[in-house]
Amino acid sequence: MKYYSRKLIKPGDLNANNSLFGGALLRWIDEEAGIYAMTKLKTQKVVTKYISEIDFVSSAKQGDIIEIGLEFLAIGRTSITFRCAVRNIISKKIIIKIDKIVFVKVDDQERPAPHHLTKEDILKDAVT
After folding, report:
1. Whose C-alpha in 2, 44, 52, 79 is 20 to 30 A from the C-alpha of 99?
2. Parallel, antiparallel, or unpaired for β 94-105 and 54-56?
3. pLDDT given at position 124
């Protein structure tokens, strides 16, 4: 798992229990995963297709710094699949785990479009 971005938990990110609001965290994950899919598929035309069961393992509080990690799992004809983990950057305690996130490349009419990449293409692209 490679960790790509960090977030500081601020007052506006909290729920009524004064811990990180799950919706804010999922928005950050979807954004980071979308960027990851765009860089791997070499296009900005991707959409979220599927997010598997979300496992909220622990909470985060105001002032915590978290980091979002993604790991490539598979490539399909139009899709890319990876897993996600978010952890506290200081304690390394896992906050959330998602086993599978799928993004699909789309054409101008929002229909799935082939990306013409292989697993080897994705794995050799170590820059992103």
Report:
1. 44
2. antiparallel
3. 84
**110/46 Cα distance (integer angstroms):** 9
Total-model pTM: 0.92
CA atoms of 18 and 22, how far apart (whole Å):
12
Number of CB atoms found within 10 A of residue 101's CB: 25
| Level-2 CATH architecture, domain 2-124 | Roll (3.10)
Q: How far apart are CA 79 and CA 61, in angstroms?
A: 35
Residue whose token pair is 């490679």: 2
Give the tens place of pLDDT for each residue, 86-111.
999 999 999 999 999 999 999 999 99
Return the structure tokens found at 38.
């765009």
- Residue 29 and residue 73: Cα distance in Å, rounded? 16
Q: What residue spans define the domains of the chain? A: 2-124
